[in-house]
Design a protein that fits this description.
The chain is α/β, with parallel strands linked by helices and about 325 residues long. The chain contains eight helices and 17 strands. It is globular. The chain starts with a strand and ends with a strand.
Length: about 325
């Protein structure tokens, strides 16, 4: 066997620890990866930590290499960068949609090499930028569009960062926290609090996971505009304001979810292609602004508890091994 590894495991809602887990024998088409960094997907992972995944979504919410079942014990996560110790391409730095674990064995086809020029510390954002890419494939912004991104968390900031490179597009990142202006400045986009945001948008991407954020997203649209809903609410059921002028202005709300390639690209792009694109985009140092906190692997149980309780503000948390 490849031996054992140490993994972050949620034992039950609100309780987690670092445990030893066995590693399988690697086959000829497998790689053994030693993790250098991982990152916490704050929104989803805090929902999982609190046990708020709806029973109806247990299967759909499984991470690619999740061990165990919701609500726990479960080893969960999907933003890991490490070095291939054994197997095809030994010595490469790779990204994998793997939980927080110091070593792991996966098929070689499930890792994507981190390109030259992308620091491993930044490459942990690949899964988040991949989500942004898929949402923009769904949204299909056009040259010169007026776009608001409501919710300046990791996902919303990733969307704004990618959109900032579109020709002629006015991008405004909208958040209730004025401190997020610094993130918008680093990404090269505008910033506004919800009450000051510019209206008459052609397109709004909503990523605040809040009822108020979705309502404001609809208000920011021009006639026949579209909100692309990226938030996942878990067990919550937000009210959606479909009265007043929703119908007379012919507004649209459309879902985007990263589990499948957006329909407009699905015939020609694989999941692996999309992830490789996200890694190429991370050659841009502007994305460093998305990581605002760091911790050691052994600190993860306390860090997830603090994040879930709202006691550790910021954007992305990078974990060092």
């Amino acid at each position: 066997m490849a031996g054992t590894a140490r993994a972050f495991r949620i034992e039950a809602p609100g309780r987690a620890g670092i445990v030893e887990v066995p590693l399988p024998d690697p086959g000829p088409d497998d790689v053994v990866v030693r993790t250098r960094h991982s990152a916490i997907s704050r929104g989803t992972e805090t929902l999982v930590f609190r046990g708020e995944v709806p029973v109806s979504q247990y299967d759909r919410m499984r991470a690619p290499f999740q061990a165990g079942d919701f609500p726990g014990p479960v080893v969960y996560g999907y933003l890991a960068v490490g070095v291939v110790e054994e197997g095809p391409g030994a010595g490469r730095t790779v990204f994998c949609l793997h939980p927080h674990q110091d070593r792991f064995v996966v098929p070689a086809s499930m890792v994507v090499e981190v390109p030259n020029g992308v620091p491993p510390e930044r490459a942990v954002l690949a899964g988040t930028v991949e989500t942004a890419v898929n949402a923009l494939w769904d949204a299909a912004p056009r040259v010169g569009d007026r776009v608001a991104v409501v919710g300046a968390g990791m996902v919303g900031a990733s969307v704004a960062g990618v959109l900032a490179t579109f020709p002629g597009v006015r991008v405004e990142l909208v958040d209730v926290d004025p401190a997020r202006r610094a993130v918008a400045d680093a990404l090269g986009v505008g910033f506004a609090t919800p009450d000051a945001a510019a209206g008459e948008c052609d397109l709004v991407l909503h990523a605040s996971a809040s009822e108020a954020g979705l309502a404001r997203s609809l208000e920011l649209l021009g006639d026949e505009g579209e909100v692309v809903e990226m938030s996942w609410y878990g067990e919550r059921a937000p009210r959606v304001p479909l009265g007043e002028a929703f119908h007379s202005r012919r507004l649209t709300i459309r879902a985007s979810q990263v589990g499948q390639v957006a329909p407009a690209r699905r015939p020609r792009w694989s999941l692996r292609d999309r992830l490789a694109l996200a890694l190429r985009l991370l050659a841009d140092p502007r994305f460093d602004a998305l990581v605002t906190d760091t911790c050691a692997f052994d600190e993860l149980p306390d860090v997830l508890a603090a994040l879930s309780a709202g006691e550790r503000p910021g954007l992305g948390v990078r974990v060092s091994y």
